[in-house]
Design brief:
Helix 1 links the parallel strand 1 and strand 2. The protein has about 500 residues and is mostly helical. It is elongated and about 100 Å long. Helix 9 crosses helix 11, helix 15 crosses helix 17 and helix 17 runs parallel beside helix 18. The chain starts with a strand and ends with a helix. The chain is built from 19 helices and eleven strands. The protein binds glutamic acid (GLU). Glutamic acid binds next to loops.
Length: about 500
């Protein structure tokens, strides 16, 4: 059997980690089995679907390089792949169920249903839902009321007795008693739009979907879907509900934990490679040790057997670590181009960049590259090389436990050391030893003064960069040039004296 799987998002919000995890698992499962990955847009809830969400979906998949084999704009014979364009089909299929006696028309007015809900709430019944008032209507009478234009919905007849179960690849046999399933849920709404359940089941069947890999929150819908498959007389696909995605505190991952939307990560300077690697490891592992996987690796290695049952934890620090690794693996010229684009966007380099802008980045590149956690870090790390940042927050320059006079004095000592340093080197090897020698000198001097090396370096670092986030001090001095470094140092020293 050839594998056909789908990602079926509802375009009601931004693509977030959980949704992308579902997309990636489906994508890699298809790739690893030589199958097809289908994208289907589930926009039957017209009030909640938005063009922005749809745009975000396409651009997110595109940015990650997740290409679908069939979907909007790529017909594989099962289209259209956008549910709002398949409306006539759902109505036809719902009518078929009415004809078969497994669904029925319901003419109850919204006001009646509202009243019923209130009454059930007051009585404290265990399942709030429809009282099956129209289930016993004569079908011919119902048909003629519908034909005369009376507003109605179509409901599925849920059996009153027994149990509906299905087998989940990960969780085994699961299901619930029919009396615990929502009583006769609506499958086609009064406006002619199907509900999620009807459209989802029809499309999965007609699109030949073999495996349903989706979030665990859909498990409760499973029995209802099984009943729909049975009503149509169709074979069930295989189900695999994916483990929950949590934050480190064991709560469901949400905005409280940090960014969750893919677009936020993208804007913050994360690479698609790092996100793909981190997100695919949410509930899937190859073995106990291997962590690095490219898209091609996952495409070759992904199996359902290696999905874990237990909830997965999204670790932001780990993502940062992956991102740093992937940044350093990037082809240098391509990386420089991306960094320059960020410098331009942040107004640090000119648009288009000047020769000087390029030269600064070129010089700083080897040091900067080692320090980047995200691409956008390039701006705070190198801004001081492009423009004079001024004094910044003077307090940041004062080492812990010192006052401003002491800070001025220690800065004076650091500047004297610099003024005596040999001329700036030009070859990479000479730079390494120049930095090392300066550090030795600073270390020795700090020891002599009875202070920490960090305390001797802090005011000088702040003098150059006016920023607590910065490049290592000695490379920063070389990149800025000795004259400018000394000038910025003296300026801060004066300011500290006067503060
Ligand atoms: N449209 C549903 C969602 O957005 C699809 C659920 C499913 O995969 O069946 O999650």
């Amino acid at each position: 059997m050839s594998v056909r799987v789908r990602y079926a998002p509802s375009p009601t919000g931004l693509q977030h980690i959980g949704g992308i995890r579902t997309a990636l698992f489906n994508y890699f499962f298809a790739r690893a089995n030589g199958g097809q990955f289908i994208l289907r847009i589930e926009d039957t809830d017209q009030t909640r679907s938005t063009p922005e969400a749809l745009e975000d979906l396409y651009s997110s998949l595109n940015w990650l390089g997740i290409d679908y084999d069939e979907g909007p704009g790529k017909d594989g014979g099962c289209g259209p792949y956008i549910q709002s364009e398949r409306q006539a089909l759902y109505r036809e299929m719902a009518d078929k169920l009415i004809g078969d006696g497994t669904a029925y028309r319901c003419f109850c007015r919204p006001e009646r249903l509202e009243q019923l809900r209130e009454q059930q709430k007051a009585e404290g019944v265990s399942i709030i839902g429809y009282d099956r008032n129209c289930r016993g209507l004569n079908p011919d009478e119902a048909a003629s009321r519908a034909a005369s234009g009376e507003a109605h919905v179509i409901r599925l007849k849920v059996p009153l007795e027994g149990k509906t179960e299905f087998t989940d690849i990960l969780l085994g046999r699961t299901g619930r008693k029919n009396k615990d399933i929502s009583p006769d849920p609506v499958i086609l709404k009064a406006d002619g739009f199907p509900t999620y359940h009807l459209a989802n089941v029809i499309d999965d069947h007609l699109m030949g979907i073999t495996h349903i890999l989706r979030a665990q929150e859909w498990i409760p819908s499973g029995p209802l879907h099984v009943l729909l498959y049975r009503a149509f007389g169709w074979e069930l696909p295989q189900y695999c509900h994916l483990p929950m995605v949590m934050g480190k505190d064991g709560q469901k991952l949400s905005k409280r934990h940090g960014a969750t939307a893919l677009s936020e990560f993208r804007r913050a300077g994360y690479l698609p490679e790092a996100l793909i690697n981190s997100i695919t490891l949410l509930g899937w592992s190859y073995d106990d040790s291997r962590e690095f996987f490219t898209k091609d690796d996952f495409s070759a290695l992904f199996t359902l057997e290696r999905i874990n049952k237990s909830p997965a934890v999204f670790d932001y620090n780990k993502l940062d670590w992956f991102n740093g690794q992937y940044i350093r693996l990037k082809e240098p010229e391509a990386l420089k181009a991306e960094l320059m684009a960020i410098l331009v966007k942040d107004g640090i380099a000119a648009n288009p960049p000047s020769q000087k802008d390029y030269a600064i980045l070129e010089g700083a590149f080897p040091v900067v590259r080692e320090r980047l956690k995200t691409l956008t870090d390039v701006s705070p790390l190198t801004r001081f090389l492009y423009t004079d940042p001024g004094l910044g927050t003077i307090g940041d320059a004062i080492p812990k436990g010192m006052n401003n006079t002491e800070a001025a004095a220690i800065l004076g000592t650091a500047l004297e050391l610099l003024a005596k340093a040999p001329p700036l080197p030009s070859t990479p090897d000479a730079c390494v030893s120049w930095d090392k020698d300066r550090e030795e000198e600073f270390r020795g001097t700090a020891a002599g003064l009875g202070c920490k090396l960090g305390a001797l370096m802090q005011p000088l670092r702040l003098a150059l960069t006016a920023n607590k986030v910065s490049l290592p001090l000695f490379p920063a001095i070389r990149l800025l040039g000795m004259k400018e470094s000394l000038a910025r140092g003296r300026r801060l020293m004066d300011a500290l004296k006067q503060a």
